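Hi all, posting the design record for the shared folder.

TITLE: backbone redesign
STEP: 1 of 1
STRUCTURE INPUT:
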């Protein structure tokens, strides 16, 4: 895991970092959506060095290469308490004991929780998982909020963010 040092006003600060032991450059078939032959298991995520004024966290997984006018939101989680800095493997599953570590909303599949990669045939797509440090303790929203609307709300309250990226093409094993 890389740590970024920032020198601001003579004070050394660490930037927010995100790490996953099981989300790699080539995404594992277990993380892929079932319609593409996967198990739809969300990866373990670990973050550190949040700004001191962080009031909550959010997590998203986004495919900017999806053939839509807005990309594809695979995972939306808000209202993660500042005491949490880890999402265990499969926490995006509504049946998981860890599902309520944050408030998971609908994705672009129209399902609550994690929805793994399942691009159309062709070139690999990029999947970007981002953790956001937010300046609000949370959002009072319905689980069925439009993912794009929620993404805009998250961005408007972001203090810092860190991302990791993986690739997947239909048929990869």
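Okay, here is what came back for every position:
SEQUENCE:
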């Amino acid at each position: 895991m890389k740590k970024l040092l920032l020198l601001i006003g003579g004070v050394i600060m660490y930037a927010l970092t995100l790490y996953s032991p099981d989300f790699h450059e080539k995404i594992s078939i277990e993380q892929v959506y079932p319609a593409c032959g996967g198990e739809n298991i969300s990866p373990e995520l670990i973050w550190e060095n949040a700004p001191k004024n962080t009031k909550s966290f959010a997590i998203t997984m986004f495919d900017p290469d999806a053939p839509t006018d807005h990309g594809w939101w695979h995972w939306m989680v808000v209202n993660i308490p500042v005491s949490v800095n880890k999402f265990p493997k499969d926490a995006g599953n509504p049946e998981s004991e860890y599902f309520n570590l944050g408030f998971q909303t609908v994705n672009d599949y129209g399902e609550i929780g994690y929805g793994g990669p399942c691009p159309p045939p062709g070139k690999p797509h990029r999947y970007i998982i981002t953790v956001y440090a937010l300046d609000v303790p949370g959002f009072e929203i319905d689980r069925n909020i439009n993912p794009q609307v929620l993404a805009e709300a998250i961005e408007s309250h972001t203090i810092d963010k860190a991302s990791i990226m993986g690739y997947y093409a239909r048929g990869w094993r």
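COMMENT: The radius of gyration is 16 Å.
Let me know if anyone wants the other runs.
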